[in-house]
Specification:
single chain; alpha/beta; Rossmann fold; nine-stranded mixed sheet; 15 helices
């Protein structure tokens, strides 16, 4: 797959170098991780308070113990390498991505984008449901060619030594990547940062994007509310109040990552237990787990994701996206709207989710689904629900 290019309308014709890649960590990296885990210096805690003050000490001790003695990274490598991995040189950035071809004659190209503190591994369960729906009780005509990149500075996409990599920039990189893979037109899906990237794709490349499917509305999204805009509904006012309350009680992580990510990185890049606490707490708080994190996420799932952050030393570059993206908030001017069709899958345990009328101020919403269960990590928590909603949304858009 080297030198792929000549993708047709909507992108550069310059060849893009694409080479196969395999997930593999060195023995030295794993030995260093084990040594650091052995020397974890645990903090004290108030007895019987669980997750009240942050990551629960008892759970973290158990997670770290399993990381040392029960977690089999080599097995996870074999699981991950069932998929087809590649590296691409896109505008000087070393991007990792999974590229799975769909079954049948006319699969629809679709790019899936993860967020923080996730990674491409979030989509392991949903990938086969999208590439080969006929093998999983669906309609074979709904198959997709699926591209799952690791965001720049996340996991196996190289850490960033330059400023200015924002969601807007990433959307342009994704358009370039899809051109290099031979896709002139495609769909986009995402949650968390991935929802922002999908929105920027629709905003900057509307001639190429068939539709966007979101399971999160970007927190920086702000429609224009002056100069004769429709007054806020009661549901919109309630959402804005809920959003402010959530930021006050749960948003400290985002403020740190958006202002001083470098300071945070010294501790998280040096202590695997600290990194595990920082990431696992978000899965506990943002997932639909009812106070039991393992009811939604296995220890293997959590540690596969955390180990990728640890081994690639990308916690700083991933957190820095919060800092960089402040320069390109998702704000719209008077009368500005997206023209690309949009679907919203609203999972009940997601962070404060806006009502449909708030989203429709600037998005062209053609499908809105109130999901019965699930939280922030929808592809991991409810892959079947998410996959079916994606298939249903894109079904009438095929062939356009």
């Amino acid at each position: 797959m080297e030198g792929i290019g000549q993708a047709g309308a909507g992108g550069s014709a310059d060849p893009m170098r694409v080479t196969p890649f395999q997930v593999s960590l060195s023995d030295e990296t794993l030995a260093d991780l084990a040594r650091r885990l052995d020397h974890t210096r645990w903090p004290d805690s108030v007895p019987s308070t669980g997750w009240t003050y942050g990551a629960d000490l008892d759970f973290l001790r158990r997670l770290v113990s399993y990381w040392k003695t029960g977690f089999d990274w080599r097995r996870q490598e074999r699981v991950l390498n069932r998929f087809h991995h590649f590296k691409a040189d896109a505008e000087g950035l070393d991007l990792h991505f999974v590229h799975e071809r769909g079954a049948g004659e006319t699969p629809l190209p679709l790019i899936l984008t993860h967020g923080w503190p996730g990674s491409f591994v979030e989509f392991q369960k949903v990938l086969p449901l999208l590439t080969d729906p006929g093998a999983h009780g669906g309609d074979p005509a709904d198959a997709f060619d699926v591209v799952v990149p690791s965001m720049p500075g996340y996991g196996f996409s190289a850490g960033l030594s330059v400023p200015g990599i924002t969601n807007q920039k990433i959307a342009d990189l994704w358009a370039r990547l899809m051109t290099g893979l031979g896709y002139a037109r495609f769909g986009a899906q995402g949650g968390d940062w991935g929802a922002g990237v999908a929105t920027w794709l629709a905003r900057r490349h509307p001639d190429r994007v068939l539709g966007i499917h979101l399971n999160y509305i970007p927190g920086s999204y702000r429609p224009h509310l002056d100069d004769g805009a429709r007054p806020l509904s009661s549901a919109e006012r309630r959402f804005l109040a809920d959003q402010d309350a959530w930021v006050a009680t749960e948003g400290a992580y985002g403020q740190v990552q958006a202002t001083t990510p470098q300071t945070l990185a010294y501790g998280l890049n040096d202590s695997p237990a600290g990194l595990a606490a920082w990431i696992a707490e978000k899965f506990y708080r943002w997932g639909d787990c009812g106070g039991d994190i393992e009811s939604r996420f296995t220890l293997d799932e959590l540690l596969t994701n955390i180990t990728i952050y640890w081994a690639t030393e990308t916690i700083h570059s991933s957190c820095r996206l919060y800092y960089e993206s402040r320069s390109t908030p998702l704000s719209f001017g008077p009368g500005e709207r997206l023209t690309v069709p949009c679907a919203v899958a609203r999972f009940p345990k997601e962070m404060p989710s806006p009502p449909r009328e708030w989203v429709e101020r600037c998005y062209r919403v053609t499908r809105w689904t109130e999901m019965p269960r699930g939280g922030h990590f929808a592809a991991m928590e409810e892959p079947a629900l998410l996959a079916e909603d994606i298939r249903a949304f894109f079904r009438p858009l095929r062939g356009r």
